[in-house]
Amino acid sequence: MSSLGPLVPPSAHRAGALLLAASIEFVAVMAVAQSRFPGYSDVANAISDLGNTATSPAYLVFDVGIVGFGLLGLAGAFYLRTALRARRTSKIGVGLLGVTFLGALAIGFVPENLHSSLHSLLSLVTFLAAGLSLLVLALAMLRDTRWERWRLYTLLSGAVDLVALAVLLSPLTNSGNFGAVERAVVAPGLLWAALTGIRLLRIPVYEPGSSAPSSPVPD
Known about the structure:
Helix 4 (116-140) runs antiparallel to helix 5 (151-168). This protein has one domain (10-202). With 219 residues, it is mainly α. 41% of the residues are buried. It has helices spanning 10-35, 59-80, 88-107, 116-140, 151-168, 178-202. The longest helix has 26 residues, at 10-35. The protein starts with 9 loop residues before the first helix and ends in a 17-residue tail after the last helix.
């Protein structure tokens, strides 16, 4: 059994609530913006088309919403570190997750039609950081009984994310299927955040007034 035991500090529940809220908020924002966009296609249209100030009737909903998603996610990543063992992989993984949400936040201020090159760069950084963060977090979960059945799921989510990103950047992706491939990049991380949030909320916390288990020596 891990020297940390099966419990988490109360701050880990805050991480869970914030990650779950961020995921739900992003899906809701996309649904609202898409419902007001005549002819929008999940297969052909990029997600960022929903924030295009020239063509999306509800661009403000999407652009403000993705900023909110980034803020919620950043706060969730900040608290997530308390649910992991004190090791370098935890710091790197949480840091990359923070970059993911910071990138999403920045995208809300840089619509695709106003700053195309910068928007594309921010999207690439966000997608790449998301996949890498999950791979590193899977390593951070090693030898921790609280995550023993979650490591493989985290690893596979990161791998699927990066493979989909490679396809997105390849000649296999064109104007007819861009939206579908981009969603394959985004979905694994978004689903991971939601399910990890639920998992964190279900792990018992330290009893009030009790001493927290001692942290292991960082590796």
